[in-house]
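user: can you give me the structure for this one chain? tokens are fine.
assistant: on it. calling the predictor now.
[tool input]
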Amino acid sequence: MRRFNFNISSLFGTNSMNSLYGDFATRKNGSYRKLMKSYYSEQKKMASDIKKAKDELSALKAQRDDKTTYEKVNPALDSMKKESDGLKAAAEALGKEDLWETKDGEYDTTKIVDAIKSFANEYNDVIDQASKVTSKDISKTASYMKSLTNIMSRALAKVGVNVDKDGKISVDEDALKKVDGKTLKSIFGGKASYGSQIAEKAQEISKDTVLDSGMYSKNGYIQNAGWGMFSKWI
């Protein structure tokens, strides 16, 4: 039979007894209770902070989704977004292939002229509205659009689209109808064309209206003190 050497002193030795006594003393003098009380108090506070952050986040999302509230708080930016989205749609419509399809070798002149007129109207609305908002980013993009339009002014004038001193454009329908479809497509509908570049800038303005509304940061995260606190624990 194998013998087991068991030294009882290992259980009741000086070190073990000191450890047991120290633990007992800690519990007796209240340190342990204070430590646990502090721990659970911190946990309770953390849970309360998380709930508060969640409530603030929900309220912020509700405000964002509440169109009426958003318009009251940011009427100029709300209008700016509508106008820029309208310009983006009008510019992108000029880039659709079906607009430039021919039948018996002829372009649908009426359809093309209407699309360019719609583009011009939306463009002018964006230029107007951009002057009513106090946003450096939007003003910078709108200025770029006007500069691009001025650079293109001679080419545009040749096809019946005139640029005035304020950077707005007007359409001479009679002159426009006489222009070859390929030429119009190269200006308004081709890749890297004037139309496609305006569409990109309109999209930038649309994004900036959301960022400048104060609901989002530049990285796309909702801006709120509670959100930063809440994000630490999720």
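assistant: here you go. The beta strands are 102-103, 106-107, 161-163, 169-171. The CA atoms of residues 113 and 173 lie 7 Å apart.
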